[in-house]
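Posting for a labmate who doesn't have an account.
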Amino acid sequence: MTEWTEITKLDQIPRLGSRVLKAGGVDIAIFRTAKDTVFALKDQCPHKQGPLSQGIVHGTSVTCPLHNWKIDLASGEAQGPDKGCTNVYPVKVEGDSVYLALSADEVAA
């Protein structure tokens, strides 16, 4: 069963930046765009497992800091010509709170 868990306040995520949280032993990067849209991805580039949270956010993409792969924040898909995908997590903003959909196992971890 999946639960919405409040993870932070929107103003705690820098615009065009990210924050990282650990859930179920996995680092999850929470990104905020210039338009205050929030996305959540596994903090690992599909190429060489670089930390996406340290990348540059532009539009609705993040560029991996290791080898410049561009990853779509909505789908987790690498943008052409690169191929690969990282996990995407459901996230929502209500008021000034950011919520992440986590399984019971991830919440307990």
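Reply:
Got it, the structure tokens are right above this. The chain has one domain: 2-108.
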